[in-house]
Amino acid sequence: MDFATIIGLFVALGAIGGSFALEGGTVDSIFLLAPMTIVIGGTLGATTITTSMRTVLKVPTFLRLAFTNGSRSFAATITAFVALSEKARREGILGLEADLKLIGNPFFRKAIQLVIDGTEITVLREILETEIAYIEERHKQGIIFFQKAGGLSPTMGILGTVLGLIHALSDTSDASRMAGAIAVAFIATLWGVGLANLFLLPVSDKLRMRHEEEIAHLELIMEGVVALQSGENPRNIRTRLLSFIPPAHRGKEV
Fold first, then answer.
1. What are the DSSP calls for 226-252, one per residue?
2. Contacts of 100 (CB under 8 A, 6+ apart)
3. Buried b (16+ CB within 10 A) or exposed e, 82-95
4. Contacting residues for 143 by C-beta, under 8 A, at least 6 apart
5. Which end of the chain is more exposed for a tag (fewer CB within 10 A), N or C?
6. What is this structure's pTM?
């Protein structure tokens, strides 16, 4: 689990909910079916119009990525490349074929297979860059989905509030009842703004962070494979790949 996402969500909700309770507010005055349906249903429907059903069906996967830590390790990948380069110097490139089944990352495994197949360096880089470009496009689907939802949610909240005010002002014979209806109408705005700023937009930013981390990892693999195909010294490969790790962490990571 990604504790930063979970803790951040709980802190934000706790601060807002706690402040509301201190002012004398109650939970049942916020969790009202009508405004929740307008905001959540309207936001989901409007966002679905802007994309495809394939992307909508991937929403659970996007949420899982936002709430879980990635399993990639830059240090482990660098160590693997150093070991592969040392073996290649001893046994030749074809000697790496036995290590393919030990590589769990599909992109890493494909890159090593291209090296074993004797792919020319320029072609090798072009193939891997194309693969990375398509991975970037797939990642952007989730980022853009939640970003658009975060933009639409406050508007749906305002729409719900306007509908509520129309209903409240349609009967002005009972002032106390009208005041209560107006207060309820603004709950939709609360849900729209809250959903956008406490969940949808933060999830979009978290997915963007995950995307940047993975692309950096894939670029590390690409540089390592190119260096391996070029027959560079294992020590030089390690030094080159360490540039992907912040200087303060290099001694600790590898």
1. HHHHHT--HHHHHHHHGGGS-HHHHHH
2. 109, 112, 113, 116
3. bebbebbeeeebee
4. 204, 207, 208, 211
5. N
6. 0.85
